[in-house]
Every structure is written in C-alpha cells, then in structure tokens.
Design brief:
Strand content: 5-15%
Bound molecules: pyridoxal-5'-phosphate
Number of helices: 13
CATH architecture of the largest domain: 3-Layer(aba) Sandwich
CATH topology of the largest domain: Aspartate Aminotransferase, domain 2
Order of helices and strands: HHHEHEHEHEHEEEHEEHHEHHEH
Length: 375
C-alpha cells in the first residue's frame, strides 16, 4: 500500500512531463551517441547560463564534483578544509578522498547553516578552503564566509548539491558565489537525473579546462593523454534528461516554496518548530525540516496517518564511525548534536496536491507530545 503522502513522488513528476522527457531519451538512443556527446555540451551551456557562471563541467556524481574541485585546486595531504558538522557525509568524504583533513564546524541555531564565527576560529596556516553547504536549499552565509576566505587567502567552494536555483538577496544564484561549486543530480534533488549525475560550476577558465581533461582520462584528443585522469563523466542520457527538466526548475522551486509557505503558516503554533518564516522566499526547499521532542513518537503518529517522513541527518559527521580517527567527541558540536536528535523532514515536492499538504498539516496538528518531560 502506498502512503497517502509519500516522502517524495518522482513518478508524479515523470507523469507530468512524460513527453518532453521521453523525447529527450529517444533522441539520445536514436543517435547512439552516449558519451560526452553534444547533449552533455548543450546541458553544460544551458546550466552555466542558468547559474550565471562561465563554465559548467558535467561529472558522474555530486561527490565527484566536490572531490575533483579540491583535487584540481591542489588540495591534498597536510591541508585542511573547513566543513560543517551537520551535512550529508559526501561533503566530508570529498575532503578525505583527496587526503586532506576535514575540519568540522558547528552550525547556527537560527538556520542550521555553518557558523561563520566558529569557522573563522578554525582557520590555521594549513587551511586551504572553506566548504559551506547550502543546506536544505537555503544559501549559506556567503558574504561572511567570503570575507574570511579573502582575509586568509583561502578558497571558497560551495556544496550546492541541495540548492539548484537558490538565489542570494542580491539575486545571484548558488553555484556562482565562490571559486567553484558542486552540484548533484541524484534523482531526489531539486534538479534530478534518472540515475547518478553531477556538475561543477566555475568562473575560472583554467580550472574548467583542467576539470574537462581530468574527468575524461586526461585526454583532449582521443588516446592522447596530457595528464593521468579519471573516468567521471556526466552520462549523455542523463544530460539530455536534465536539459529537458531544466526549463521547469524555477516553477518547481516556486511550487516547493508554496508548500513551505503553507507549512510555516500552519505550524506556527504547533507541537513542532518549523523553520523561520523569513526563509520561505530565500530557500529552494530541497527539504522542509522541523524540530520536535520525542521524534520517534511523532514519526510513528505521522506514519499511522499515511505521512512519510525522513531525518536529514541522524548522525553528525564527527560522530560517524567513519570519522572516529579525526578525534572528535560527543559534545564538540552541541548545536549539530541537538539538531540531530530533534529534526524531522516533512514531505515536500512540487507535485504535492493541496489535499496532501493539508493531510500533512492535520497529522502534525493532531499530534500531542507525551506530557512527561524527558531528559
Ligand atoms: C546529495 C549530496 C551530495 C552528493 O551527491 P551525490 O550525487 O549523491 O554524490 C553532496 N553533498 C550534499 C549536501 C548532498 O545533499
């Protein structure tokens, strides 16, 4: 039995745009040109125009995008990169994959973004880059971070994997705010492929040229290898699908905003704490994350009413067994730790019907937390 309100409904999106997407897929299959075809180039050009940058380089995944930026910037063993403690593991993995050390920073209470004051305090002579995340679709505090980066002559790299189309107050798109930015096209992202995909956005001509070489075996001419590269190309079929979907991205983000607006209004005086209402116009709402005591009880209550929820993310980076060797302990990042215990993601996607939105709201409002205060 499918839930009344699934957490995500990719089938609804395909149904709504079947013709455009099928046409894109047939075009690629008919041409039998699958690898770095004109489809990839055309999508790269279109997405670069959309983001307001000179170059987009398509790669295999969001993790590849992050990793290749750091690698081509010469970051490696002995270097440090500043990363938020509350993010998807890929942000930190990109740093450790190139042999550098992820230096973690706690987030701010008000919007769960990396705290720029604490980030600055972690800068050392080994710091090579700041790697903020536009978490849940909300732009990170880039002006403050840019000042820190400029003062310390360090790079500012964006993890924009959750922020396709988000804009700053000045109207600049996420992806155009640092030295380079990483995007993921994992199917559930605001702009999602039908498989894995990723891209790097940058204004830097030389960096873009190096990335194009590296992702394709280091060759500019077939079988002539300038550098020892890798195979992490954006697939041609995925590029065609992404190009077909790109035209809908702004309206999809607007639909997500409509859901967020309704949630924020309805959940003001409820048993959960919604995001601050002033985030509604600023975020592209990849996720809508509320805070609640007794999360398990809350999720069970919603499940009973057919509403699926998620947790993004249940374990902060410093408490992941994978990063035990970094030497952090519980208590090091109190805000991230407290959020990890309390956060729940409600369903949010462009195709949500009014009935579904109200079903979620009714389910939340009908929940009463256990009266005994827990410790
Ligand atoms: C999805 C995501 C990634 C990684 O993207 P993949 O395409 O799955 O490799 C990196 N960072 C953040 C914040 C993400 O949400």
């Amino acid at each position: 039995m499918s839930a009344a309100v699934p957490f995500l409904d990719l089938k609804a999106q395909y149904r709504a745009h079947r013709e455009a997407i099928d046409a894109a897929m047939s075009r690629v299959v008919d041409s039998a040109s699958f690898i770095l075809s004109s489809e990839v180039e055309q999508f790269e050009t279109a997405f670069a125009g959309y983001c307001g940058v000179r170059h987009v380089v398509g790669v295999g995944t969001g993790l590849d995008a992050l990793r290749l930026i750091l690698l081509e910037e010469g970051i490696g063993p002995g270097d440090e990169v500043i990363v938020p403690a509350n993010t998807f593991i890929a942000t930190a993995l990109a740093v450790s994959a190139v042999g550098a050390r992820p230096v973690l920073v706690d987030c701010r209470k008000e919007d769960s973004s990396i705290d720029p004051v604490q980030a600055e305090a972690r800068v050392t002579p080994r710091t090579r880059a700041l790697l903020p995340v536009h978490l849940y679709g909300l732009p990170a505090p880039m002006d403050e971070l840019r000042r820190i980066a400029e003062r310390g002559s360090i790079l500012l790299v964006e993890d924009a994997c959750q922020a396709h189309g988000a804009r700053t107050l000045e109207g600049k798109r996420c992806g155009s705010l640092g030295t380079a930015a990483a995007f993921s096209f994992y199917p559930g992202k605001n702009l999602g492929a039908y498989g894995d995909g990723g891209a790097i956005a940058t204004q830097d001509d030389e960096l873009a040229a190096r990335l194009r070489l590296r992702r394709n075996y280091g060759q500019s001419v077939k079988y002539h290898h300038a550098v020892a590269g890798e195979n992490c190309r954006l697939d041609g079929l995925q590029a065609a699908i992404l190009h077909a979907k790109l035209g809908f991205l702004d309206s999809w983000n607007e639909q997500r905003r409509r859901v967020a607006h309704r949630y924020c209004e309805a959940l003001k005086d409820s048993p959960v704490t919604p995001p601050a209402a002033d985030q509604v116009p600023r975020s592209v709402w990849h996720l809508f994350v509320v805070q609640v005591e007794d999360r398990e009880g809350f999720q069970a209550h919603l499940r009973q009413r057919g509403v699926e929820t998620g947790i993004h993310y249940p374990v902060p980076i410093h408490l992941q067994p994978a990063y035990a060797h970094l030497g952090y302990s519980r208590g090091d990042f109190p805000v991230a730790e407290s959020l990890a215990q309390r956060i729940v993601s409600l369903p949010i996607y462009p195709e949500m019907t009014d009935v579904q939105i109200e079903t979620v709201i009714d389910a939340v409002l009908s929940w009463s937390p256990a009266p005994i205060s827990r410790r």
